[in-house]
Specification:
Number of domains: 3
Number of strands: 13
Strand content: 5-15%
Helix content: 40-55%
Structural class: alpha+beta
Distance between the termini: 45 Å
Oligomer: single chain
């Protein structure tokens, strides 16, 4: 947890929430934090799994915020989750076996004939339908707890509606429907987690560009320190093959520097006294002394990483619509189902069992999993795919705006190509043989250090 006072009466706190793994999780955490008095602003980032809170200065408010997050079912301040094997990941294992039981149930249904749907209280149950029930229980175990927490806090969401739909489908005897909903929704959540994790890997590769230590020049010689300890105007030494630790200005030495990790320029740039250098770039051949002009947390590389982390805050219009839609849709469908069950029974003398089944049927039919899930996954997958190709997209709104682009202007060489020329043909001028041309070129290049 990081906490600092940013204004006379406002404190900024950054919390790590490693089990906040999807957009729905982030929304629940944000809602929980906003329920605390004195909150000025909340920002959640699924990509970095962090929550940034601005709140009015109060000694006990930090504890109230962490308690609110815990009550929502998440663990603030925990260390980053370790990568575990497939068989130790409860959600993946449950989803896998839910799929196995679901398809076993389908095969047996085809073999023995699909049983007619009968409500649970009739006592009609075919032995092979137990596989559907097992699939529903295992697949639903990934979000049942979240659904009941939503009901307890009266903040009805997609997890609650899915839980209600599965329970309802089971009660009216639609065991295959219950199993299908549980398995498909769990699979969709795992796909979303996978897409976001790929985006996190791209982010981690950016973070790996920055060195952890710097060689600081002191009155007594040299000292290796953590890069976060380097202050403005201090001199750092960068030897051939080392990464520049901080943004700065060359005060001594001459070298070629590979700036491609930051600027995308494929060819090394010569740096002499007075030239600026970026953190994360690579000194190729000479000795450099660099005066720090920015601390590590203010470097160009750090700003790029922050832009990627904040990409989720720039939601696409379609994402914003779906988020608002799901917020009102779930309570509306729940009330409508209650109306279907109660109104005919109370005012028109309808049979309660009949209308109860019809109300639950409405819940199953109205389950909007495809609509609510598809948009965030599509956006995250698009941003991730672009990151793998070396293109950083700041958010879903920018990704969606690309669909309206008709003309693109590129300003320099290397933007559209790899910037790594290769020899495709050797054409000897009249009077020269190809072998002679290659022999002379090889002789000129054999001791050259030019890239």
């Amino acid at each position: 947890m990081i906490s600092e006072q940013v204004e006379p009466d406002v404190t900024r706190m950054v919390l790590s929430v490693p089990d906040m793994e999807c957009a729905g999780c982030a929304e629940k955490v944000e809602r929980a934090v906003r329920s605390v008095d004195g909150i000025c602003g909340v920002q959640t980032s699924v990509m970095s799994q962090k929550v940034t809170v601005h709140y009015e200065l109060n000694d006990s408010r930090a504890d109230l915020i962490t308690d609110a997050i815990r009550n929502a079912g998440y663990s603030p301040n925990a260390e980053g989750a370790e990568t575990v094997s497939f068989w130790r990941n409860w959600e993946k294992v449950c989803t896998l076996f839910a799929g196995v039981f679901f398809f076993v149930g389908l095969i047996l249904s085809w073999q023995f004939g699909e049983a007619a749907s009968q409500p649970v209280w009739t006592g009609h149950f075919e032995w092979y339908q137990i596989f559907y029930v097992l699939a529903a229980c295992l697949g639903g175990s990934n979000f049942f707890a979240a659904g009941f927490r939503s009901l307890r806090s009266l903040s009805l969401d997609i997890d609650f509606l899915m839980t209600l739909a599965i329970v309802g489908a089971t009660l009216i005897g639609e065991y295959m429907e219950a199993a299908a909903i549980a398995f498909l929704f769990s699979t969709a959540e795992l796909l979303e987690d996978y897409a976001i994790d790929r985006a996190r890997q791209s982010l981690r590769s950016l973070m790996a560009l920055a060195p952890d230590v710097a060689t600081l020049k002191t009155l007594d010689g040299e000292r290796v320190v953590s890069v976060v300890m380097v202050e403005r105007d201090q001199i750092v030494i960068v030897r051939p093959g080392e990464k520049v630790p901080v943004d700065g200005e060359v005060v001594d030495g001459f070298s070629a520097v590979d700036q491609s990790p930051i600027t995308g320029e494929s060819m090394p740039i010569n740096k002499a006294v007075g030239d600026g250098v970026f953190a994360g770039t690579i000194n190729l051949e000479g000795y450099l002394e660099v005066r720090a002009t920015r601390v590590a947390s203010e470097s160009t590389l750090h700003r790029i990483i922050e832009m990627v982390e904040e990409a989720e805050e720039h939601r696409a219009p379609s994402e914003q619509f779906v988020k608002k839609f799901s917020r009102y849709y779930t309570p509306a469908i729940t009330l409508l189902a209650l109306g279907v069950i109660l109104l005919p029974t109370l005012f028109f003398g309808g049979d309660f069992s009949l209308w109860f089944v019809r109300g639950l049927t409405l819940l199953v039919i109205a389950c909007p999993c495809a609509l609510v899930i598809s948009t965030p996954i599509a956006v995250v997958s698009g941003i991730t795919s672009a990151a793998r190709q070396g293109v950083l997209i700041k958010g879903g709104n920018y990704l969606e705006a690309v669909g309206d682009v008709r003309v693109v202007a590129f300003d320099k060489t290397g933007t559209l190509t790899y910037g790594k020329p290769v020899v495709t043909d050797v054409v000897a001028v009249e009077g020269w043989a190809e072998a002679d041309v290659l022999r002379i070129a090889s002789a000129l290049e054999v001791r050259s250090g030019h890239p």
